């Protein structure tokens, strides 16, 4: 199976920078690549590239209406966007998104046939308490989630590894992915300080079907190196 490589730009890169990034990247890609890019809301554009998919980092589970600051389905439809990140730890922890809201989003966008990249991952205090606690916590993030949804991709992203430069080690990724694969057999990405140096050994792990990259995707040369390494797998 070709490995999936997804980039989450978070709150980085202006609309202009995103456009030139996407135009350049699309020309370098092959048909066999499986690439997703999640730009900032204001940089969302027509999902009409040849080799890469544009997804949204967030949206509210409505067609449209009075939800200040949120994106509704009608705007996404106009751009042909049908991929969404749900449950990212920054939305759960910084923006206070509850499991209930994640479930509402999941059900709404699944009904609309979206591809959903659903993120789970424990913080350091849980990891420090041991693997049993990690398992219990991750299970709770799957509560009421249709883990057999056909267009689901899961991303395991330990919060303590996100943006810290400290990726989980191979054993931790292996063990946790093995556990998540028992919950769902859908493609499973690892995310958390993935870069051009560590991506190869991470992708070598059997139960890692791809990576979700934040910081290291912001520089197009770095991201292309990550893609090149993914192609070798
Ligand atoms: P990072 O972010 O690669 O900067 O750690 C990953 C993510 O949050 O998706």
Topology:
Layout: E1 4-8, H1 15-28, E2 34-38, E3 52-54, H2 73-79, E4 83-86, H3 89-93, H4 99-111, E5 115-120, H5 124-129, H6 131-140, E6 152-156, H7 170-183, E7 188-191, H8 199-203, E8 210-213, H9 220-231
Parallel strand pairs: 1-2, 1-8, 2-3, 4-5, 5-6, 6-7, 7-8
Helix pairs in contact: 6-7
The structure holds 2-phosphoglycolic acid (PGA).
List the keywords:
233 residues, alpha/beta, binds 2-phosphoglycolic acid
List the strand order in the largest sheet: 3-2-1-8-7-6-5-4
Ligand identities: 2-phosphoglycolic acid
Low-confidence segments, ≥5 residues, pLDDT <50?
none
Q: What fraction of residues sit in β-strands?
A: 15-25%
* Assembly context of the chains: single chain
Task: Report the major sheet.
Answer: 8 strands, parallel
Give the beta-strand count: 8
Q: What sequence of helices (H) and strands (E) makes up the elements?
A: EHEEHEHHEHHEHEHEH
N-end to C-end Cα span: 9 Å
Plain-language structure description:
The protein is an alpha/beta fold and 233 residues long. Helix content is 37%, strand content 15%. Strands 3-2-1-8-7-6-5-4 form an eight-stranded parallel β-sheet. Helix 1 (15-28) links the parallel strand 1 (4-8) and strand 2 (34-38). The radius of gyration is 17 Å and the shape is globular. Bound molecules: 2-phosphoglycolic acid. Residues 8, 157, 162-163, 191-194, 212-216 line the site of 2-phosphoglycolic acid (PGA).
Give me a quick take on this structure.
With 233 residues, this protein is an alpha/beta fold. The protein contains nine helices and eight strands.
């Amino acid at each position: 199976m070709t490995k999936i490589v997804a980039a989450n730009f978070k709150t980085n890169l202006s609309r202009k920078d995103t456009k030139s990034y996407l135009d350049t990247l699309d020309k370098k890609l092959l048909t066999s690549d499986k690439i997703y890019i999640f730009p900032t809301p204001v940089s969302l554009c027509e999902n009409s590239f040849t080799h890469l998919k544009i997804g949204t980092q967030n949206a509210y589970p409505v067609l449209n209406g009075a939800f200040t600051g949120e994106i509704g389905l009608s705007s996404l439809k106009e751009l042909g966007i049908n991929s969404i990140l749900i449950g990212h730890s920054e939305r759960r922890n910084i923006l206070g998104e509850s499991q209930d809201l994640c479930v509402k989003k999941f059900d709404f966008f699944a009904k609309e046939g979206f591809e959903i990249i659903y993120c789970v991952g424990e913080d350091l205090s849980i990891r420090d308490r041991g693997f049993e606690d990690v398992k219990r916590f991750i299970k709770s993030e799957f509560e009421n989630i249709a883990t057999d949804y056909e267009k689901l991709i899961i991303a395991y992203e330990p919060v303590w590894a996100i943006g810290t430069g400290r990726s989980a080690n191979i054993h931790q990724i292996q063990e946790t992915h093995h556990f998540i694969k028992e919950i769902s057999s859908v493609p499973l990405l690892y995310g958390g300080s993935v870069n051009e140096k560590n991506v190869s050994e991470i992708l070598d792990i059997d139960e890692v079907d791809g990576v979700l990259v934040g910081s290291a995707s912001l520089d197009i040369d770095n991201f292309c190196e990550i893609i090149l390494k993914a192609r070798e797998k």
